[in-house]
Amino acid sequence: xxxxxxxxxxxxxxxxxxxxxxxxxxxxxxxxxxxxxxxxxxxxxxxxxxxxxxxxxxxxxxxxxxxxxxxxxxxxxxxxxxxxxxxxxxxxxxxxxxxxxxxxxxxxxxxxxxxxxxxxxxxxxxxxxxxxxxxxxxxxxxxxxxxxxxxxxxxxxxxxxxxxxxxxxxxxxxxxxxxxxxxxxxxxxxxxxxxxxxxxxxxxxxxxxxxxxxxxxxxxxxxxxxxxxxxxxxxxxxxxxxxxxxxxxxxxxxxxxxxxxxxxxxxxxxxxxxxxxxxxxxxxxxxxxxxxxxxxxxxxxxxxxxxxxxxxxxxxxxxxxxxxxxxxx
Amino acid sequence: xxxxxxxxxxxxxxxxxxxxxxxxxxxxxxxxxxxxxxxxxxxxxxxxxxxxxxxxxxxxxxxxxxxxxxxxxxxxxxxxxxxxxxxxxxxxxxxxxxxxxxxxxxxxxxxxxxxxxxxxxxxxxxxxxxxxxxxxxxxxxxxxxxxxxxxxxxxxxxxxxxxxxxxxxxxxxxxxxxxxxxxxxxxxxxxxxxxxxxxxxxxxxxxxxxxxxxxxxxxxxxxxxxxxxxxxxxxxxxxxxxxxxxxxxxxxxxxxxxxxxxxxxxxxxxxxxxxxxxxxxxxxxxxxxxxxxxxxxxxxxxxxxxxxxxxxxxxxxxxxxxxxxxxxxxxxxxxxxxxxxxxxxxxxxxxxxxxxxxxxxxxxxxxxxxxxxxxxxxxxxxxxxxxxxxxxxxxxxxxxxxxxxxxxxxxxxxxxxxxxxxxxxxxxxxxxxxxxxxxx
Lengths: 329, 440
Known about the structure:
The complex is a heterodimer of chains A (about 325) and B (about 450).
Chain A: H1 3-12, H2 17-35, H3 43-61, H4 65-87, H5 92-111, H6 116-119, H7 130-134, E1 147-149, E2 152-154, H8 156-180, H9 183-193, H10 195-200, H11 205-228, H12 240-253, H13 260-284, H14 292-313
Antiparallel strand pairs in A: 1-2
Helix pairs in contact in A: 1-13, 2-8, 2-11, 2-12, 2-13, 3-4, 3-5, 3-11, 4-11, 9-11, 12-13, 12-14, 13-14
Chain B: H1 6-35, E1 53-58, E2 60-61, E3 64-65, E4 70-75, E5 78-83, E6 89-94, E7 100-104, E8 113-115, E9 121-124, E10 131-133, E11 138-140, H2 148-180, H3 187-204, H4 209-238, H5 242-264, E12 279-281, E13 284-286, H6 288-310, H7 312-322, H8 324-329, H9 334-359, H10 367-382, H11 387-403, H12 413-427
Parallel strand pairs in B: 1-10
Antiparallel strand pairs in B: 1-6, 2-3, 4-5, 4-7, 7-9, 8-11, 12-13
Helix pairs in contact in B: 1-12, 2-6, 2-7, 2-9, 2-10, 2-11, 3-4, 3-5, 3-9, 3-10, 4-9, 6-7, 6-9, 7-9, 10-11, 10-12, 11-12
């Protein structure tokens, strides 16, 4: 058992691009579900649009990185509108089914051979980060040297991705916080609790829901962009499992809280990394009666069980307030 | 934020409908001619995910290499396509050492040239090594191809078959939704479970296939009963809302799915007698498995219809779907009926799983997950919560999925069904057989 490596790997996830990306996407989901009560099961689609929008704009159309990112966000906003128009007037579970279907359509369109020229189909995209890294403010270090200390050691390129991601996350959290304490946010929470009551006050519930869907979707797409900044776009990562992991994170941290989704993302990834390192080693050492591949699968079974337990026993999450009931019956 | 009138919002809905139609049209447009123009890889196999196993070869005609010929490989639920390079060379990577069918798209060969032999497809198997060189011999000649109407007919039969087996799972899910309000995300795993029980019964316990199917039915019933008694009934009594229940079912789906992977790994397994030799029936080829599959589905659907329409429990089930409070007040034991519904749904899902394993063909740990969205599409199309709506929805989904490959590439066939779902929701949100007041 190499405890040092296990600990280093686990602590590394405290501040890794993937943690930041999941935190952003879960924050977007918090706007949808936590504040507006919208059952969006298509977050993977929003993330895919952000990632592909960015990567394709750079690779196929030669845009600079900031414009390319903007394209990704605009695509997500457009997707939210297309999803919202048919479903936001219907009962909540219709939105759930349509969003999960739409996200799957998006994934299939990015994976098919038909648009291979742009999407490179099942192989995914890579090599689009030159433009982004050319804006790197951190000077390149001599060979063998790293920024940071202990488990958090990064090359200049990695550090730039993380700093950029943390800045975006901070911005997103601030925007969500400011929105939710504004009159607009209060109407949104009102819609979550009792749609008819808000309607009786003369508010256009449809428009509010639509705006929330767009705002959350754009934050989710931001997460999708951070997700692919370190290396490559892999189409098989945008399955429904990604959406379900985001829901686990959201409900773990607290659906209608500002910092809950970020806390959930950190805990989720650190626990996953801990188990991912620990269980196979325990299996190899003969402490667990299974192969190390089985030990690697075991942690995902635990994710499912954890999601069930959270929803049953602590639906408000770690940071949530029981009085603020997100699950309207 | 100003309040808009209903008439002012209408055009937006039609705009989206229009956009959707445009998207569908674009897909149609891109499909047939443009798909064939996908670029050849720079080196053989360079356009695919590289695995340990591959088939490769050179296509030449009269000693000259033939570039840009489309080759397709299929087997065990895997599909891939490639083009020959300028030197006529090609390579197709496959995930495992198993039997595959290689097909040459003869429309991409020079005019008047075909692959020698009975057809442009052949079955391939690996020898002792991880690669196999396949020599294709071309000759001059004409191939009598199937006309469009015949192809359509074949696909319609395939779609009917798929729709019927999908209906088994979807009717169960619709009954659960109708009686408990739960959108059961773990239904896909109940489907996988049926196939898995059959696999274990026929390979590990060496039982004959019919006994394996009976084992699947019993296993499905036990799973349905266990899920209701161990999880859903306690949660209902705890007073969890439908959204909470739905997310619990997502957690259950993840846990079950990865438990399956834990035990059987990532491999694809074949049930006994998969891919048999087809029988020629007039213009169409069917295997006896297709025929048995359709027969089993129809018998099961008729049994469910009899149960719902003619038995007391079935009437009680429909009464609960209609109005649970009134049903409980008039002396129906709601918990008992729901338990029976779960058992019926478990049996139907397990049966569907066995048939799905033959239809795909192959059994994988995540095969149910692939079906889950189609189940949802079917029950939403039919109108949430009505079993006969789910049957109708399933047939539509099955036929759309199978016939759409005539126009759109096969890797988009599931997307086609989901687009249809969204388009129908736009014009008829309550579904085909749903009632209007179900809307919120």
